[in-house]
Amino acid sequence: MKRESVKVPELGGASEVEVIEIAVADGAAVAIGQTLITLESDKASMEVPSPLAGTVRGISVKVGDRVREGDEILVMEIAGEAASASAPPVTPASTVTAAPAPAPVAPGEGPAPAAPTAGGVVLALRVPDLGGADSVEVIEISARAGDSVTEGASLLVLEGDKASMEFPAPADGTLLALDIKVGDRVTSGQKLGELRTAAAAAAAPVAQPAAVVAAPVAVADVAAPAAAPAPDVQATLADGDAVAAITRVFEKETRLAAGRAPSAAAAPVYAGPAVRQLAREIGIPLDEVRGSGPKGRILREDLRSYVKTRLAAPPATALPTVPDVDFAAFGPIETVALSNIQKATVTNMSRSWLNVPHVTQFDYADVTELEAFRDSLKPEMEQRKNKLTPLPFLLLAVARALREHPRFNAALAPDGANLVLKKYCHVGIAVDTPQGLVVPVIRDVDRKSVWELAAEARELADKARNRKLKLAEMQGACFTISSLGNIGGEGFTPIVNAPEVAILGVSKLAVRPVWNGQEFLARKTLPLSLSYDHRVINGADAGNFLSFLVVVLGDLRRLLL
Length: 561
Known about the structure:
Elements: E1 2-7, E2 17-22, E3 29-30, E4 35-40, E5 45-49, E6 54-59, E7 66-67, E8 72-78, E9 122-126, E10 136-141, E11 148-149, E12 154-159, E13 164-168, E14 173-178, E15 185-186, E16 191-197, H1 199-202, E17 219-222, H2 231-238, H3 242-246, E18 248-250, H4 253-258, E19 268-270, H5 273-282, H6 300-312, H7 340-355, E20 358-366, H8 368-376, H9 378-384, H10 390-404, E21 410-412, E22 419-421, E23 427-429, E24 431-433, E25 436-438, E26 441-442, H11 450-465, E27 479-483, E28 502-506, E29 510-515, E30 520-533, H12 539-554
Helix pairs in contact: 10-11, 10-12
């Protein structure tokens, strides 16, 4: 075994480029021509294929690094000089279909040229070494039986758990058969089809092991990605345009969506595996993207431009847009930029309102006894230096209600077919700040005392107003409480903070006459507004939940039951 350093090739005039993708892992087996990394300059991206076949034994770069021509990419461990031979592998004459045998060649005298046939040589196309993967999926098929293909043209694309790999044609010729379809999983060595080479290619010398009697072969096994680039492709590598020479494929949007083979009339699309994989993940039909690279090659920037253009043009089913009005035409105006928090609120609220079918129910909680209890705790508040507002009691009541009504402590799965029931109780509290509305989250509300909840709520609110909240302190809520405090109003319709399924709105406490069956009494009441996702919660569920809150807030002793 020996080790060889693989370095950055000539960059076509660029001084340095960025590493945007690493397609192999340390310890992976790599075939000749297999993509190692993808480099990107200000104007284009290029993939660096492996000049050797062997095993990766140390990667010297990482995504985001900027490299120059000649910098080391990785170290490859190879079995010997034969590992880097550029001739494509062939099956020994004893294992292939018989053909007229020429005069034998003595061992060590070198290979004898294969006798050309009128139809050329038939190559059996086989899956190359998968670098340790058990199997990979066929995600694209770019040619059909009967198609004429050129050496290096992509026949299909294979995808494993971490990377995709194109399977190029090993020679010019006609594709006789391709015995797989999109969605099939294939393994190393599996036969994929057959290719009849052109007569000129058939006349080229075929190297045989020195100890084997040379003979022309009618069918040879070829794992195409293991073959070294032809001289013209190697010359292209120096120009930084290798991908364009080996990625001519046909692609239609229907193939992306349903896995159907491309039609014969499809236009050629030039793009590397990294760009194709990104397009598949986003769902972009490559035949609709205009490439800005050499020979019309599609770059990552072209995908971004395509997405921006599509987003700027609302689809026919989009909601009508608000007309753009020149308000300055009617009088003096001032334009104030939204803070990042306010812009995030715009996005989040719009998303929740459009995706969640909202229903809101209203009620009043008689909190006269609760307020009397709070007043009685004022000496202890001073002693503890911890003020008790109605919020800690609301948190305890909500935690108990979530335990009694578990559908409110849930989330609808993205497939719409399952409900995720949460076994924890984290409650968000909406806090108004000069920068906008934020929702810090109090964790394990059901396990904390009223004093602990009061202190934590005050601490999180102070952090929010001073812009010191961490991202983790605003994640994981099961339910949200949005309280207007003493601002005023008798009710409002809070918007569910999806993926939560409900939110409680609390308005200003006020004294109202309440009929006790014999007379009207002046009672302190708290207006409650419960908004919920009607896909998960129906009206009866919401009514029971809200009634439970009203009862518990009216008599805190019920929290002990």
